[in-house]
Design goal:
This protein has about 280 residues and is of the alpha+beta class. It has a single domain, classed as 4-Layer Sandwich (Metallo-beta-lactamase, Chain A). Helix content is about 20%, strand content about 35%. It contains eight helices and 16 strands. Strands 1-2-3-4-5-8-9 form a seven-stranded mixed beta sheet. The chain has a seven-stranded mixed beta sheet with strand order 10-11-12-13-14-15-16. Strands 6-7 form a two-stranded antiparallel sheet. Strand 6 and strand 7 form a beta hairpin. The protein is globular and about 50 Å long. The mean pLDDT is about 95. Bound molecules: zinc ion (ZN). Zinc ion binds next to helix 5.
Length: about 280
């Protein structure tokens, strides 16, 4: 997609499977399995969508998938079979890791920042050596001291090597990180997740991230049980989905394997996704 001086590509780090019950919180299984069938291990098929933006001299990666550092047990639990595809897809676009100037982590759960680092000669090193890495300061603090409830989502090898290399640019709340690319701190999934909005050439692209990870999560109370603050998720979903519908924003859903992009439509107070190609 070309928007003014920006070139945007929707990429994916490949398939990813999570427990259906955990993905739908208090929604009973007889309801959610009418929407999406789980596998024999009660997992549903998801993906890890990422965005690559070239704009002037900047080459910006938004979201960084799960990477290639998970051990065989975790690969099995999360169904990460086959080679992860984010770097392959970037290479196909002619983008090498050295070319990336900025990596935006929406938050530091392992399925959003895995490619931050890779293993080189037995050490964890930044995958993108010339990039600044951006995250909310509060999210990095939390990742270092998670609760018993969410520590299984944070793997230090994804963020400590960035610190050791002095590559963090920490954010304190909403910010314009590059002309036309803004982040908004949106609590709910956790305290300091950030959503991303891109405004260029009269259009708006929006990443609600885990506020609304798939189109199944558009109804306000379809909230993941991973969320630390589900009532805030619901409040923020009402606010941001209303804005997305009003502004005709093209939304990219970070974990939706079937309809990664689409427009939010409102009808009699209810929201739905009208799927759209990323164009
Ligand atoms: Zn996620």
């Amino acid at each position: 997609m070309i928007l003014g001086a920006m070139e945007l590509h929707l990429l994916s780090d490949g398939p990813f499977w999570l427990d259906g019950g955990a993905m739908f919180g208090v929604i009973p299984k007889p309801l959610w399995e009418k929407q999406i069938q789980p596998d024999a291990r009660n997992r549903i098929h998801l993906t890890m969508n990422c965005l690559l933006i070239r704009s002037g001299k900047e080459c910006i990666l938004i979201e960084a998938g799960a990477g290639d550092k998970l051990d065989p047990k975790r690969n099995d639990i999360f169904g990460l079979s086959g080679p992860p595809r984010l770097l392959d897809q970037m290479v196909r676009l002619g983008v090498r890791p050295d070319d990336v100037t900025m990596v935006l982590n929406t938050h530091l759960h392992f399925d959003h920042c895995g490619w931050n680092t890779r293993v080189s000669r037995g050490h964890f090193v930044p995958t993108f050596p010339n990039a600044r890495y951006l995250v909310q300061r509060g999210e990095l603090d939390w990742a270092r001291h998670p609760s018993e409830r969410d520590r299984g989502s944070y793997f230090p090898e994804n963020f400590e090597p960035i610190d050791a290399a002095g590559k963090w640019s920490l954010l304190d709340g909403d910010a314009e990180i590059s002309p036309g690319i803004r982040v908004f701190r949106v609590p709910g999934h956790n305290r300091d997740m950030q959503c991303v909005r891109i405004d260029a050439a009269g259009r708006t692209i929006f990443l609600p991230v885990d506020l609304c990870p798939t189109h199944y999560h558009i109804p306000v109370h379809w909230v993941m049980s991973y969320d630390l603050y589900p009532l805030q998720t619901m409040e923020n979903k009402k606010k941001w989905l209303a804005e997305a519908a009003r502004g005709n924003w093209l939304c990219v859903l970070c974990h939706d394997a079937e309809t990664p992009a689409g427009y939010i439509r409102e009808r009699e107070g209810k929201y739905t996704l009208e799927p759209s190609p990323f164009t």
